[in-house]
Structure formats: structure tokens, C-alpha cells
């Protein structure tokens, strides 16, 4: 009996400590968090597949998940405005847009605005581009911030979080180098994207979009914008038009029809990828393959 008790005691001592529970608002941030919690825990994602942070409405069950999480990670009110009130006063929150030194892009006056005057002259999220996960050079400082917070909340697993960070940094550098080579042939290719979300990726890999259909994916493109894009496609200034899985309005197909331009998909939200330790690298590869198809 004593031997059995000792065996059970030793087995219990070998079990990992209970890890901090992590909730991210969107999948791409969940991808980075999952790399940091590899072999420790799996982060949960608040928004379901296909949902947009631009117009999401919280349900009572979502509020319970927010309250139950040990750490909630979001981009900031510039992207997920619906989270501002539920997170007010909550202690264990990581707001990524406020990270010191994060190379966040601020739109210059007139940059990225719609062609149509009646559609407004400002992004819904002000002059800050909140699509920070689209910059591979921002993924590492985001991962570092996540590890720092998790190490505070869960010191028993601190060494494992830090080891995961080192592993991620090395894998990210390798994948970034690979993607950079994939992007070179399409750097000079003209294309239009559905909504103005890809600036971090484009600047990082030296790409130049010809424009976008809309600033806010919930807002229908205006007539002037559609005419401008149609003319550019007819004049072969752009070879491709990128739709998105969660936003594929018929207007994209109609504008591109009979112009010779390809209509392709960019999954900037990673909707088809499962959250896991290597998901961010998988997402980078999927983005690279999508852009590479524009030839």
C-alpha cells in the first residue's frame, strides 16, 4: 500500500502545472499565442470562423468566456470595438496596439482612403492600421509580449514559454526568408484587394497594391471606386483581384468580368487554418501561395 501511494505521489509530481487559460479575439493572434503555449495549453479564439471583428456582436456566452479567461489578448479598440466595454477594468488583458516599440503603421492624410467622397475620408479605426498580424516582422514582438505576460501569470511554466519563443523565432525567420523568395516574382504585379488590410504584408515584402474596393468590408464599394478599378483592369494595370472568403460580394466578379484579370482569394483571417503551434507559419505559407498565383 505504501509503495502504491509513493508511486501515485511521484506520478502526480511529474504532471505539468495547470497552465493559464488564454483567449484571443481573432484567429491569427491565436496562431501566435498557440506557438507560445506549445505542449502547455491551446488558446481559445472568441470569434467563430467567418466572423468579422468589424461588426461582431458579443453574446452572453462570449462574455462568460471573457470573464473566465486568465489572459485575454486583443489588438485594440481600433479593430475590435465591441471588446472595449467588456474589458474595461479587467486586469489580465494584453492590448497589442499599445505594446511599446511595436512598429505600428499610421496612415498619412489621404492614404488608403476610398475614391468615393460620400464613403468618408477616414478609416473606421482612425489613422492606425490595426491589421498587425499581417506583418511577419511584428509577429515576434507580439510573441515576446505574450510570453512575458504568461510568465507572470504562470511562473511554473516560464521556462517552457521561453523555449517556445526561441523555437518560434527561429522558425519564423526561416519561413520569412522562404516567403520573401516566393514574393519576388510578384512584387511588380498589379492587383486590387477587397479591403484595405494588407499594408503590413505589402511593405514587408516590397509589394504594391493598385488599390482596394473598400476601407471597411461592411461598406459596399461606391460607384467611382468600381469605375476606377474597372478601367485599371481593362488597361491591364492589374492582373488580379483578391476577394476574401468571408467577404466575396458579386461586385468583384462583375468588375473583373471580361477584363482578363484573375479573381483569387486571400484568407487574411486564417479561417481555414486550425489553431495550433505551427498555425502562424501555415498561414504565412497560405498567404504566399495566394499572392504567388497572381501571374
From TrEMBL:
InterPro entries assigned to the protein according to its UniProt record, in alphabetical order: Bact_metal-bind_prot9, Lipoprotein_PsaA-like, ZnuA, ZnuA-like
GO biological process: cell adhesion; zinc ion transport
Coiled coil regions, renumbered to chain: none
Gene Ontology terms, MF aspect: metal ion binding
Protein keywords: Disulfide bond, Ion transport, Metal-binding, Periplasm, Signal, Transport, Zinc, Zinc transport
Compartments it resides in: Periplasm
Signal peptide: 1-19
Role noted for this protein: Part of the ATP-binding cassette (ABC) transport system ZnuABC involved in zinc import. Binds zinc with high affinity and specificity and delivers it to the membrane permease for translocation into the cytoplasm.
Gene3D superfamilies xrefs: Nitrogenase molybdenum iron protein domain (3.40.50.1980)
Organism: Aeromonas simiae
GO annotations of cellular component type: periplasmic space
Family listed: Belongs to the bacterial solute-binding protein 9 family.
Record has Signal as a keyword: yes
Keyword check for Coiled coil: no
Protein's name according to its UniProt entry: High-affinity zinc uptake system protein ZnuA
